[in-house]
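Colleagues,

Please find the record for the two-part complex below.
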Amino acid sequence: MADKKEIDEVTGVETTGHEWDGIKELNKPLPKWWLYVMYTTIVWSFGYWVAYPAWPMISGYTEGLLGFSQRERVAEQIALAREAQSALNTKIRESSFEDIKADPELLQYAIAGGRAAFGDNCSGCHGRGAQGFTGFPNLNDDEWIWGGTIDAIHHTIQHGIRNGGAEARDSQMPRFGLDGILQETEISDTAEFVLSLSGQKHDAAAAERGAELYANNCASCHGEKGEGNPDLGAPALNNNIWLYGGSKDDIVKSIVTGRGGVMPGWTERLEEETIKKLAVYVHSLGGGQ
Amino acid sequence: MTSMPSLADLAQREAAPGVPVVDAVAVNATQNRSLYASREPIYPKLAHGKFRTIKWAVMAVTLGIYYLLPWLRWNRGEGLPDQAVLLDFAHQRLYFFGLQIWAQEFYFVTGILILSALALFLVTAVAGRVWCGYACPQTVWTDLMIAVEYLWQGDRNARMRLAKSPWTFEKAWKIGGTHVSWLLIAVATGGAFVFYFRDAPTLFMEFVNFEAPTIAYIFLGVFTATTYLLGGLAREQVCTYMCPWPRIQGAMFDRDSLLVSYRAYRGEPRGPHKKGESWDGRGDCIDCRQCVAVCPMGIDIRDGPQLECIQCALCIDACDSIMEKIGRPKKLIAYDTFRNLDAAAHGAREPLRLIRPRTILYLALLAIVGGVMLFALSRKTVLDVNLIADRNPLYVQLSDGGVRNGYTLRILNKRGESRRFALELGGLGGAVLSVVGGDGKNGGAIEVPANELRTLKIYVSVPGDAARSLPEKSDLTLTVRDLSDGTASQRETTFRGPGR
């Protein structure tokens, strides 16, 4: 810095002595305190390195004297949230389904919790919106293979279906074709009769032939008019809802191979209140009886 | 500037008979400065006059509102806070007297901010930095801190003497008293701030008993520290170096804005005036430097418009009193426009143009935003209904061939009392409504507690026969009717099916 400052003619302000292609910088001094604030922040940053996790190392990182950890913070917050929910969870565990339904706050909590648990545990098979896929029932509609009351839904979630558990829902449809119980033409005729039950297009003569076959082989589980039987997990055949498809080919395939989906029981995996929330949620999806 | 007379010389001189030259030099005067500058302490002299009186009044009103408003009560009925102005973050609600702003109505606050910004632009276009000079919290609190300093230590000369004098008991008492008073004001300021966020009497007792929430102590501490530091110690440094507004202001006023200006055409050439001397051939400025002495920014208005000037007009007061004393016309320093100043240099006059494109534009924008706000305010409801159709699945086919759609219904009751609502469907023949958790036809009476949001899951079904002729999309309306007074809110939505 020169001892004698050059004064800019236009502004009357001295320059810093810096010049670029004839453009000179006026000296507008920075306050010293501002400079000291900057030095302070630099010193502060050194303190920060020491106190908090800062530098990546070859394996791991410098953890800092305060032992702060973002993961621990998250864990603490989750624990706090769990604690905040524990009163409501206790209430859900101890309340009957009628009481839960009568308490708007509890009902809303159960449905919200049920939706979350459904997303984690059930949506893999039943779909995110519980809309189901071929072989995996749609839980929004009004046909319930194993019963659509909230208690029946609760039991199904608790123990599952055909998983070998002592209290699991169980039944087995025979493999009419594969095991040679019915001949190919007989199966075709039976399928035509089943089509007639739900008012679909069918061959009337074949259906008439199939009626007796149906009465002998199918009616004991699916009902004389195809109304189904939730106690045996036999779906209704007289409506528009088909778990494995409602075309003739689909029905023939079902009769030939037999059907029987498997669902795990959840008592071992989920807490009691979570299963109750799931039951309330599934029942609230609109099809509940 | 090498020709500048030394302070000692100045102190000896009289600017005019009975008017001493004050040893005040502008802090931003150009000298042989280094790249970093220490703060030059400023000892503003107390001004007397019209603008000082206005500033006292503005200070009394703004500080009065700030400190006392949290204590004003406003009865809102059972279950709601009775504080007139309360920013209740815990319950996501803002209360302004009779007005309640819910979190989802935050656009009202946005609107107020836009209106404030436009009003600021308008005022700046008309009369320069009126906000900075009179109403900015930094200005008001600095002014208050300087007044406290005046009460403890006396006026400019006494304060300068005290600052230079060695440490004695008297000096310690006066300086200590000043800082303790500043800190008390700072604590009251920080305290008042926190009172806006929690019931003031309750929080006050909690403070007294040391059982207030930690966050309240933190904010009390933060605002105490900033008031003391920025208002008491940093003062003009905040405006000159920290605040972006002075930089923006340059684009806000134009040649027709009224700015605090030194009328050089009248004042120059300046110089001391001796008794009996003629005023012909010279300016009215007697170079007494009173304008510099009263300036809280420590600058010389005669150097022309400058970034540091907050246009508080105290130099007008100081100069007017001198002009009166020496028998010259007042308003050597006055609110004037660049246009008029330029014209006056050639002996002409330019009238004040208040109505010009810039002000018309700001006024029009103010009117539009204000109108939109008033319209929104008039339409502000005490019932909010939100209806969202399920997206997964879009529709559900039922065993009888019927179709069902699910919806999430949210009813927000913004009244201070519990209300019961009935739901009605319209626009879709044969549709049946059911409510999860509801009893009776259409879910019966839906009760929503006072000031609460209730979320309901509802289903609309069209039975088999009617569903056969259903298109892929149909219009559906849902009416939420208050059972007690019959008022209703209607929502339109879509009912989806597989289509035929």
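Chain B has 17 helices and 17 strands.

Comments are welcome before we finalize the supplementary table.
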